Structure formats: C-alpha cells, structure tokens
Here is the input.
Amino acid sequence: MVGIEEVLSCIGPTRGDTIDWSAAERVYATSFPPDYRAFIAAFGRGSIEQTVGVNLPAVSSTELQVDTVSKLSEAALADESVNRWASADRDKHRLEDLLIWGWTAAADTLCWVTTDPDPGRWPVAVYSRGQLEWSVYPCGMAEFLLKLLRNEWRPWPISDSSLQDLVDPRFLHSTDEQASYEEGVDPWE
Here is the structure.
C-alpha cells in the first residue's frame, strides 16, 4: 500500500470496508494478502475511474457472487481458449490456482496466483481480453495498481488504456456510485 494513498484520491463519502477476515478465510480456506486487506480498509469495494474494479471477499458461502472474490467458473476452467498464457508464463501456472480480486471495464480479469503458502507473495495474473491470454506480474495487488496509476508498466497490462497518463486518478466506493446513479447523477462527471 506504500504510495497508493498518495496517488489515488477517494470521491464520495464512503471510505473503506470492514471485513470479518476470519469468516472470509473460512469461506476461501486461505488468508488474504496484507496489501489487499489494507486496500479494502482504506478504499473498499469500488472502482478507479470506472476502469479497474476491486471486489470484496465473501464472509459466508451464501454471499459468493459475481462481485466478490472468487475462483474461475467451471465454464471458464473447461474452456480451452481461457487457458492461454503469455510465452513467459506458459506451463508455469494453472487456472485452478487463480483467485479473482478485480476486473476492468474492458472485461479483463485480475487475479492472484495462489500457489505460494504466503499470500503476501501471491503475484497478480491478468487475463487481457485484448491479448486473449494470461500474464503474471511479480508483485502484489497494491503494487500492481500503483504501477498502473503511475503508468510504469511496459507493456501495458490491461486492455483499457484510459488510466495511462491520468494526472489525478479517483476511486469511488460502489455504495456511493450506486447511490449517485439512483439520484440520477453521474458521479464520474
């Protein structure tokens, strides 16, 4: 989380989410990376400029849904076209070891590769709809986002380039975004 709070500002009144991490760990049978936990406490579930979204973990098995942290669906696991990896990552990773923590407006999937027993060392995997393949980045979720916001990735890791060269990136909690739309106001304008 070092640096991300200096680069990313919150719009809207909601700041962060409180999670029963013990309950979430029971649902997923694993703990979560410290940087993710810190991000959720500071920002919560929502999106950066409607371009990159971050999901919350479920705290009960009945909460597992599209907008929570999840494994890839059975359909995705069975689809050979989803099991394509960038040449540097080919034959190193399995789809079954991915845990989805986020998304992009361009329908990219943002995951952790959960094979290390220490969640603090889980790298980020991105399924780019533009490239139709997975790439793995040797950093945690917060560092991955910070490098996006600072335009430090070469090549650019997601299909949407709208965050490149953005001067003041903003985060909006999903609660505030929904409330604004219900009032007929676009909170991003």
Notes: The chain has one domain: 4-160+167-182. The first strand starts at residue 9 and ends at 11. The chain is about 25% helix and 20% strand.
